[in-house]
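User: quick one, sequence for these C-alpha cells?
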C-alpha cells in the first residue's frame, strides 16, 4: 500500500516517523507493507533523508493509481476540503486529524466515500492519541449512549490546572502555556471553546448518526474564570473544567460547551495539565472513561496511523464511522437538569436561597456562593429573575 501525506507539519511528520520506526509491526498487522510514496508540502526539505518523495502539486498524488490512502494533516478548511473531496471522488481513502473539516463537512465526505467505495477516517480529530471514535462505534455498540462529557482541549486544561495548582491568574497561566508551546499566539480557538465545540459536535454526530451543526452549539470558554471562582471551587472540593457535553434523549442531543464545577468524586476532576478525558455513559455499561494525551506529535500521529492500518485491512466503505445530514437534531441544553453553582452578593442570598434552595454554601468577601438542587437552567433563570446582586452561575457536572 502506498500512502501520501498532505502537510508535513507536527502531525504529518509524526505519521512519517511512526510508519518508518514501526514498519515491521505495521506490516504484520496489515498483511502487506505500507510505504510513504509522497509528502505534499509547499516548503522545501533539502536535508530530509527522503527528499525525493516531496512534491508541491496535489495532482501528482491524485493521478497516481498506486496511492490508496491520502493522509490529510494540513489543517484549515479551504485546501483541505478541496484535496479531500478530490481524493475521495477518485476512490482513495482519506485519513485526517482535522477536526474543523470533519465537524463541518464530514457528512459530505461520508456520502462521497460511499459512492466511491472508499473510506473517510478521523480517529485523531477528537482525542488526539485517545481512542474515542472506535470505542463509540464498536466497543459500546450494544449501548444506548445517554450522556457524553469530555475535557478535550489540552490548552485550556493546562491553564485551569495552573490556576488551581499554582494560584496563577488566567493571563499568567495563558502566557505560560504559550511559552511552552501549548497555546498559539492567538489562543482564541482554545480559550473561547471553539476547538471543544468542533470535537463535541463530532462525538455527538457519531452517537446520533446525524450531523450536529457545530455553529449552533452554545459555546463559552474560560476567559471569565477568576481566582475567586477557583477559591470557591477548592472550598467545595471541586475542580473547574472546560467541558464539551452532549445529553441524548429520544434521538436528539443537547450539546454545549462551557466551564463546569466538577466534584472530586467524578473522574474528570483529576485530569490535569495537557491530558484529556472523555466520560461516556451507556444504558447498559454505565460510565466508561477514556484518558490520555489529547494532542502532541506522536500521540495524534499514533491515532492517524491506526486509521491507516484500518484502511489497509478493510479498504471498502462500511458506514461504521459516519453520519448524515438530517436537519436540526438538537434540543436546548438549558432544559438539561443539573445542580448549579451560583454566586450572589451577601445581602441577596436570603432571597436567592428562598427561590432556589441550596445544597452547600460558602461565604467570601461580601458574597455567597451556593449549589442549587438539580434543575434546568431555564428554571434557574426564572427563579433568579428579579433578584438583584447575582454575580455568576456555572453548571455542576455530576
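Assistant:
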Amino acid at each position: 500500500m502506498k500512502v501520501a501525506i498532505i502537510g508535513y507539519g507536527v502531525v504529518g511528520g509524526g505519521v512519517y516517523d511512526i510508519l518508518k520506526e514501526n514498519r515491521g509491526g505495521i506490516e504484520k498487522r496489515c498483511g502487506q507493507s505500507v510505504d510513504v510514496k509522497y509528502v505534499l508540502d509547499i516548503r522545501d526539505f533539502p536535508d530530509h533523508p527522503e527528499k525525493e518523495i516531496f512534491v508541491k502539486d496535489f495532482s501528482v498524488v491524485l493521478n497516481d493509481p498506486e496511492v490508496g490512502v491520502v493522509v490529510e494533516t494540513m489543517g484549515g478548511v479551504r485546501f483541505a476540503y478541496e484535496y479531500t473531496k478530490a481524493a475521495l471522488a477518485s476512490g482513495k481513502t482519506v485519513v485526517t486529524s482535522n477536526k474543523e473539516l470533519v465537524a463541518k463537512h464530514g457528512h459530505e465526505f461520508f456520502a462521497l466515500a460511499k459512492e466511491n467505495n472508499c473510506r473517510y477516517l478521523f480517529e485523531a480529530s477528537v482525542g488526539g492519541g485517545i481512542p474515542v471514535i472506535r470505542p463509540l462505534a464498536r466497543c459500546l455498540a450494544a449501548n444506548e449512549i445517554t450522556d457524553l462529557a469530555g475535557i478535550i482541549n489540552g490548552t485550556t486544561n493546562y491553564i485551569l490546572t495552573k490556576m488551581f495548582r499554582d494560584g496563577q491568574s488566567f493571563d499568567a497561566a495563558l502566557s505560560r502555556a504559550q511559552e511552552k508551546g501549548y497555546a498559539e499566539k492567538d489562543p482564541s480557538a482554545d480559550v473561547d471553546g471553539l476547538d471543544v465545540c468542533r470535537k463535541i459536535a463530532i462525538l455527538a454526530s457519531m452517537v446520533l448518526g446525524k450531523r450536529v451543526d457545530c455553529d449552533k452549539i452554545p459555546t463559552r470558554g474560560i476567559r471569565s474564570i477568576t481566582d475567586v471562582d477557583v477559591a470557591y471551587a477548592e472550598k467545595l472540593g471541586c475542580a473547574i473544567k472546560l467541558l464539551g457535553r452532549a445529553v441524548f434523549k429520544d434521538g436528539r442531543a443537547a450539546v454545549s460547551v462551557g466551564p463546569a464545577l466538577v466534584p472530586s468524586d467524578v473522574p474528570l476532576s483529576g485530569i490535569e495539565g495537557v491530558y484529556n478525558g472523555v466520560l461516556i455513559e451507556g444504558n447498559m455499561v454505565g460510565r466508561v472513561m477514556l484518558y490520555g494525551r489529547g494532542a502532541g506529535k506522536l500521540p495524534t500521529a499514533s491515532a492517524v496511523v491506526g486509521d491507516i492500518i484500518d484502511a489497509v485491512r478493510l479498504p471498502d466503505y462500511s458506514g461504521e464511522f459516519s453520519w448524515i445530514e438530517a436537519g436540526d437534531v438538537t434540543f436546548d441544553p438549558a432544559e438539561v437538569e443539573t445542580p448549579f453553582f451560583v454566586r450572589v452578593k451577601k445581602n441577596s442570598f436570603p432571597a436567592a436561597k428562598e427561590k432556589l434552595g441550596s445544597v452547600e454554601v460558602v461565604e467570601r468577601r461580601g458574597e455567597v456562593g451556593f449549589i442549587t438542587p438539580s434543575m434546568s437552567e431555564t428554571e434557574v433563570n426564572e427563579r433568579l429573575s428579579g433578584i438583584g446582586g447575582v454575580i455568576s452561575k456555572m453548571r455542576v457536572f455530576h
